[in-house]
């Protein structure tokens, strides 16, 4: 910017060249005042104005690119979190919750079978405890120690060995034929349902909440980028119109190229993010919502099964606070009611045949389960403990068989919904792929094109 | 709630009962006839049962001098016996967690023990089939409610006969003499129901005689959960079943247990590291078979069964059952307690 104050000389250097040394008097004045004065002086001439407009235009295009880069990079990183971090963590929390509930159910089933616990029940109990421990270690590693989730993980890690200790004591006593075993098993169940499962549920809720936040962050509309894009495009159009009016020339190649680049970025941005939004919303609506309901349904089926078993273990040793009904039988009833409601909800949420088929299977399984349970209760109330036991843990025609059917169906339904979630969320993340870098590169190209185009005009004044 | 009220009333009564008890007892000599009268009100049963019985407690407690005295033995039929006959099964409320008294053997999956033998004897007498029984496991604090709500015909579940309870249920003659005793680890400094309990955490079953004893005199022991009787009950010091106390004791969550020596012996048999403390029980109690208040025909019939059960000296059914289940944990009992009958 070294135009002399009254300079109209066409041979002055154009913008983008290194600044020549300023005059001595100018140096004496404040830098700001001097620049303002020169700007004022430049604005009085067409080349000066062209230079200023050119610089502003280039800046607008660069800003558009930079804002898009930053904003979409943040959206893409949230989308990436959804796919690679928060959903897996939420699924892991659900698995911890399920493993613990399953372990408690298996402990009671094995106990009911007598001194010699069935090997498959023992193996499933072991696998549950192993999975819960492994997932707790993973979850602890990927959770910030300051968060509520970390506190729950600590609680669970502390209580899990306490729980397994109680179960082992129950087994050791049961093996010796001592009634103390039943008392230990009930105490273990009290620990599980009173302390472990609530902590696991809170962990699951927190992780699911984080997933919802990440997904919402990724779906947030990129207002700044779109705004900057519209401003940049508008300025480019205005500049070309001004050009046309002054020179009667229709096209300036540089400005045209810049306009094209800005338009491409704007369209890419709008379409890319809209697709990403739609896919991510789909992942939440069709995948995660179903997953959430199905996870809760599965936990309730496990709890109901544990309570059904414990009704036979405790045989009336624990009653509801008002003393009129068996506590475990009452809890079974509550759990089954919730399970029924959740399965209905899951059926409504299931959006294709592959998704609704396993849910229907589960609903059928639950209704058979409840019929068989009623019959088993009647048998037990009649005093025929052995028959009741067979009706609950027997290999065929038992409530246990119905429970397995429900559990299998829910597992299939969960796998299907997890697939749906993964596909949609990955598509959503993919729709943003390359956008930040593409936008930045195109914006730089656009800015260069603006400068080239304006220099073409400036050169006409030389 | 009701139970707590009952306890409070009883505790208060004991305080001045010693002084005026006899005088009052004389004043209401019509005494024993009040029992059928109380029943005649027809207020027992259903949800209101607890309240009505609680309000009856003072009357009964005042004239309660000899709670062990029961109706004379008779083997005649009455409405309650006929109900059992018609059903073809005797419904007995029992424990399934009391080692050697009433417990489910995980190996054979059947209920076994001293109480169970007696139930079989009653079923054999009434129905001619010792296995015509429906066993219902009921927790300690539900023994009375189960009778009042007609869930069971009889409760044979190490149930202590006492003044408070005879206003709520009808007892047979005593079939066992027991007493409250302290159970603690062998290495413990606790040496009985005395000052050594001070500051110790003591576990009892909810609504049990042991709990009442501590309520009356605790020697500074900690024996109540913070949220007892509410939804947040911790079930740590007062638990649903006496055996839950042994779980808490083994885990170091309590220091001692107070329960019947008979039950305590069953617990000690499951854990060689604990023992009964003190030379002998600090109370004398009798176990009786309980029936619903007013089921006089059934009570008289059970007393008749007990007469046969005691008869025969060393080879009596009672002694046979004792040797099978109890002699190891509670050695040296020469025979059953003598029955006492009401004079009217």
Looking at this protein, list some descriptive labels.
heterodimer; A: 462 residues; mainly alpha; 13 helices; disordered N terminus; B: 344 residues; D-Maltodextrin-Binding Protein, domain 2; five-stranded mixed β-sheet
List the helices and strands and how they pair.
The complex is a heterodimer of chains A (462) and B (344).
Chain A: H1 24-28, H2 31-43, H3 46-112, H4 119-141, H5 148-175, H6 180-219, H7 223-247, H8 253-314, H9 327-349, H10 353-381, H11 385-393, H12 399-431, H13 435-459
Chain B: H1 2-27, H2 34-40, H3 49-62, H4 79-87, E1 90-94, E2 97-98, E3 102-104, E4 111-112, H5 114-127, E5 133-137, H6 143-148, E6 154-155, H7 163-166, E7 169-178, E8 180-185, E9 202-205, H8 209-216, E10 238-239, H9 242-250, E11 256-260, H10 261-270, E12 274-277, E13 285-292, H11 296-310, H12 317-325
Parallel strand pairs in B: 1-5, 1-6, 9-10, 9-11
Antiparallel strand pairs in B: 2-3, 3-4, 6-13, 7-13, 8-11, 8-12
Helix pairs in contact in B: 1-3, 5-11
Transmembrane segments (chain A): 50-70, 221-238, 250-271, 435-454
Protein name (chain A): Secreted protein
Organism (chain A): Streptomyces pratensis (strain ATCC 33331 / IAF-45CD)
Question: Could you characterize the architecture of this molecule?
Answer:
The complex is a heterodimer of chains A (462) and B (344). In chain A, α10 packs antiparallel against α12 (399-431). Chain A has helices spanning 24-28, 31-43, 46-112, 119-141, 148-175, 180-219, 223-247, 253-314, 327-349, 353-381, 385-393, 399-431, 435-459. By secondary structure, chain A is mainly α. Chain A has one domain (49-459). Chain A is 83% helix and 0% strand. The model of chain A is unreliable at 1-26 (pLDDT under 50). By secondary structure, chain B is α/β, with parallel strands linked by helices. Chain B folds into three domains: 2-62, no CATH class; 79-178 and 284-325, Periplasmic binding protein-like II (D-Maltodextrin-Binding Protein, domain 2); 180-277, Periplasmic binding protein-like II (D-Maltodextrin-Binding Protein, domain 2). In chain B, 38% of the residues lie in helices and 17% in strands. Chain B contains twelve helices and 13 strands. Chain B is globular. The two termini of chain B are 35 Å apart. Chain A: Keywords: Membrane, Transmembrane, Transmembrane helix. Chain A: This is Secreted protein. Chain A: The chain crosses the membrane at residues 50-70, 221-238, 250-271, 435-454. Chain A: Residues 1-27 are annotated as: Disordered.
